[in-house]
Amino acid sequence: MRVLVAPDKFAGTLTAPEAAAAIASGWRRHAPDDELDLVPMADGGPGFVDVLHESLGGRLLPVTVRGPLGSPVEATVLIDGETAYVESAQACGLHLTRKQDPEKATTYGVGQLLLAARDAEARRIVVGLGGSGTNDGGAGMLAALGATGDRPLDAGPLGLEGVTRVDIPREALAGIELVAASDVDNPLTGIFGATRIFGGQKGFDDAETPRWDAALEAFAAATDRFVASGKGAGAAGGLGFGLLLLGAERHPGVEVVAEAVGLLARARKADVVLTGEGSFDPQSGGGKAPAGVAAVAGEAVRPCVVLAGQVTVGAREMRALGVEAAYSLLDIVGEERAFAEPAAALADLAERVARTWSRD
User: Which of 133, 245, 261, 311 has the fewest CB atoms within 10 Å, i.e. the most exposed one?
Assistant: First the structure.
């Protein structure tokens, strides 16, 4: 039997490659003769570059950039032919801010990664958006590319208060195709905007959100309100907006990864498709990796099975996503073991799933 193993990360416990390896290990205990194809997935957030490098190969270009709060951080750009892949979380991720001083956090380092990709002669740059600790509308990124204004653009949302003029350096990446890879379709500002929906995750108190939403509104007024209202402008604290200002096209991150790794062709060669993530919940349908993998499995007319840390999606919702069945670590091995030994626990779960789904 041929099995495609295509999980996302299990946030806080396993990377996507680790999760794929654990699932494969457990499956082989029951069905050692099955043919397994491991394809770790990502939706544009943390792990985006590692997952693509795992499948595509390519060259990793190390780059030291300015972190969200000013200290230098190490990042990498994946070069695959004329395409460069950038993971914005490496330069401005929540793991770098730990919810500290979100009003000062900047995306400047993302701009430096774009320049590194340009200098590596990339003709296409794909930017994975997700897991950011910033909320500056991409102003810092634009500043790194040479943007100027009547307020400091590299000082986080605090610097955007009162801004009325911004000059966008469109020539910095002239001739380069830009792709914003994100599962988020929120606009930049308003009740569904970056600050009000995601600000709490980055450290803003509820009482502060009107102030910082107003700062992004001022930035939008000084640049392009129409673009600010578009889908994906609010991704990664508005980093999506900065990329859209530069002419980027937005595509769901999981679709970008699926296309890059040839997921559909690989699914057509499989008898069953396995995917997973830390929490398979109602939000999973909003562009997360398991839903994207299930869609590809459906196109290939193959059953899709989810292995997750926990499952809170009902049978009807699962069917709507194209998922045949979902199995929960918490239900099978318990919470304590799921967190204490995540790889071993996931392998045990995969062995149990194999008993049902493998013909061995």
Answer: 261
